[in-house]
Amino acid sequence: MNILVLNCGSSSAKYKLIEIKENKTLAEGGVEKIGLPDGFIKLKFDDGSKKNIDLGLIDHKGAIKAILDALINPEYGCIKDLKEIDAVGHRVVHGGEKFSRSVLITDEVKDMIRECYGIAPLHNPVNMAFDTAFHQTMPKSAFMYPLPMEYYTNDHVRRYGFHGTSHRFIAQRVCEMLGTTPEGKRIISCHIGNGASISAIKDGKSIDTTMGLTPTEGLMMGTRSGDVDPGALLFLMEKYNLSPKEMLNIINKKSGVLGITGVSSDMRDVVDAAEKEGNERAQLALDMYELRILKTIGAYAAELNGVDIIAFTGGVGENQYQTRKRVCNNLSYLGVKIDEAVNDTLWRGKEGEISTSDSKVKVVVVLTDEEYMIARDTEAIVEGREP
């Protein structure tokens, strides 16, 4: 069964065509800079090479057409006819409290997604698997904010969490790698990248996660602030006469690693600036970034009453071996021990266990595959099974 997985953002549209029975990727890539005059589609090939094709100014419908045209292109396409696509799966960033699993798209489902536009205004309007659904198993004590109850009752203001598709995949994949099952296991899944979140997972179900009503809560990220005293934000808004829209722009696009360093939001650039140039602000950003990861792992270990597995994934989690080493070396109180030589080799598409044989906690680097999870859910729905 060939399943086309689409993942549309506010200005991009990623895709992957998967033969799900053999878990074989037939094609992948994405359209970038949607709505801008220099839009283009990026194609990725089996040999690792890439090809960019200029599209000019297009909207999301144009982006999807470009993707479909690329799939059947006689020069670089992988199928001859669109009829070879058996099903299409799509990620929706925010499902609110309305969805706890992937569903078949119907008119009723579309209406419910539209009701969630206000929560994820940049993504849901161009999305029609739900990235918050995995976290619907969180207990009320974990997802509620200590605000007047009417804001939850009337407006559904609560913590929803994000990266659910990734955390769900990681909880299953890491157990496969270790030859065990999620049942009976306490897992801390660290999706660390430009966007970052950590989840506490027990028996394969999310019981807590760092992101909240929006993706700005939790860890320090590439350009997002993560947790900040709300009083500090109100102070700045009043002092500099900032509108809510301006403050949203600051905490989403001008804060985090970029805000502290003034260099970049990319951790590779930050590491180079700190280690090769002695940039003090870059080093401070690294220290802040890693401290927040460390504090969250400690908090979730307490919440889980121990931890069996810590998994690192995402752009930084998969590739930044320096960050993994510094975090893990401060978890000795949990009995964490890593093989630094092995850890230093796991990046650029490599995964594996980095903990030593006598470590009380298994520490594993896992390559996340959200598209595979979406494809698998799509297959189940097409075949009449529950995802």
Structural description of this entry:
This protein is of the alpha+beta class. It folds into two domains: 2-87, ATPase, nucleotide binding domain (Nucleotidyltransferase, domain 5, 2-Layer Sandwich); 180-370, ATPase, nucleotide binding domain (Nucleotidyltransferase, domain 5). Helices cover 36% and strands 18% of the residues. A hairpin with a 4-residue loop joins β2 (12-19) and β3 (24-32). α9 (267-277) crosses α10 (280-303). The longest helix is centred in the last third of the chain and has 24 residues, at 280-303. It is globular, with a radius of gyration of 21 Å. 42% of the residues are buried.
Summarize the structure.
This protein is an alpha+beta fold. The chain is built from 14 helices and twelve strands.
Q: Looking at the structure, what is the overall shape?
A: globular
**CATH top level of the largest domain?**
Alpha Beta
CATH architectural type of the largest domain: 2-Layer Sandwich
Helix and strand sequence? EEEEEHEHHHHEEEHHHHHEHHHEEH
Q: How many structurally independent domains?
A: 2
What order do the strands of the largest sheet run in, or round the barrel if closed? 5-4-3-2-1-6
Number of strands: 12
Structural class: alpha+beta
Largest sheet, in brief, is: 6 strands, mixed
